[in-house]
Protein: Mannitol dehydrogenase family protein
Amino acid sequence: MTQSLSLSTLGRLPPAVRPHYEPVTLRAGIVHIGAGAFHRAHQAVYTEEALATEYGDWGIIGASLRQQGLSDTLRAQDSLYSVLTRSEAGSGLRVIACVRDVIHTPSDPRRLPALIASAQIKLVSLTVTEKGYGFDPATRSLDFARPDIARDLRTPHVPASTIGTLFAGLHARRIAHGRPLTVLCCDNLQHNGRLLRHLVLAYAEQVDGTTARWIEAQVAFPDTMVDRIVPATTPATLDEVEERLGLRDNAAVWGEPFMQWVIEDAFASERPYWEAGGAQFVPDVKPYEDMKLRLLNSSNSLLAYLGYLAGCDYVYEAIALPGYAQLARRFMQEEAAPTLSMPPGQDLAAYQERLIERFGNTALPHRCHQIAMDGSQKLPPRFLAIVRDNLAAGRPVRLSALAVAAWMRYVGGKDENGKPIAVQDPLANQLQAAAQGEAAGIVDRLLDMRAIFGDELPRCERFRSELIAALERLQQIGSRAAVMEYAAG
Ligand code: CS2
Structure:
């Protein structure tokens, strides 16, 4: 049997693949909450580059809020893992060593707050997905009715929710020594830093006003834009890594060559030299995050819903169907781009063409189903923000309506051949119940879900009638034919 990747086998790997520092002596300076594939293929890679260029105490302690398996797998290989980069032009592999441990927080709820409080930790970063923060997507305020948040408010010293855990750590930090901290939200949310600050403060006000004031003064929450396509690891990924490495790595991740990280230059204290990996530090992230959410993530979701309905497993298959790339281009040019302000030095047209190429990467199959999940959380930043801006400016919303209608059809739970869809969404049951029957009824019942659509949008007749028209077309002629129609004009 092949031996596993670990500190004792690391030395066998060619120098180009392994780290150029001694992992055992690396001290931790970062705690990362949500140590899944995206974090390990993105922020950890930037940190690895920073360490290679300018060594420092920037090891990462990861925390997994759900999967015990992740912590066990990583610990079995001394938290080392590989990143496989794949594109049609070729592939690359390297071992990342800056993650020094991954803890499973439900097994020991006090451990993560204690780490956040530790004086040697200067940064806490997070990738817990949109739904992991516990806010109402339409109002962006903390949902105090959510069972995990309500429970944490009753027992704040043994938290389970992300916000409760972060607060417990910050509170302990204030009491222990009060050193400043930077909290870096790395999820695909508008103004993610500001949003997280607002959620933490809302929670803190309920528990301890003194800590709330301290957070306001001593904790920085920079906005960030993160980008890299990182599909879920498959057994084939692990086999390919094993073949190339000559060692078994059960924690390997894979991603495309492209990576981008734009960070608001507003830290509470020191940080790693992430510029080494190409990170950009800017005064205002908003133009970049709008560009990414409204061009990349929205067209990714558009292709995922319409592709899944058409029977495609992967985005690269969807974008190869007649009309799909054309529809994505038109959606970006006609509805998304007009709502954007230009990030400095960015060529928006080239960015859009690059996206079409990235989605078409056959060497990195990205499941439509993975992107389609949690639509109730993803729709507001990806489409509804665009729709609101366009309605206010008197511009078209027809293609956005087709994407939202495709989501409506998808959450109904049956594809176009009558095959069940395993809809994954915190609101899955309500969505599925609402999405049955005639188009007008489905649209009205779903629009009525204020946590997604807010108060104003459901009252807008223009949007409602575009949704009904699009959903009727999807029901009558199916997604492939509807895409051809909408792509043509
Ligand atoms: C995707 C994103 O799963 C999804 O919803 O749209 O994960 C996307 O691949 C990344 O944001 C790319 O940076």
In short: The chain has a mean pLDDT of 96. Residues 144 and 150 are 6 Å apart (CA to CA). The first strand starts at residue 28 and ends at 33. The first helix runs from residue 7 to 10.
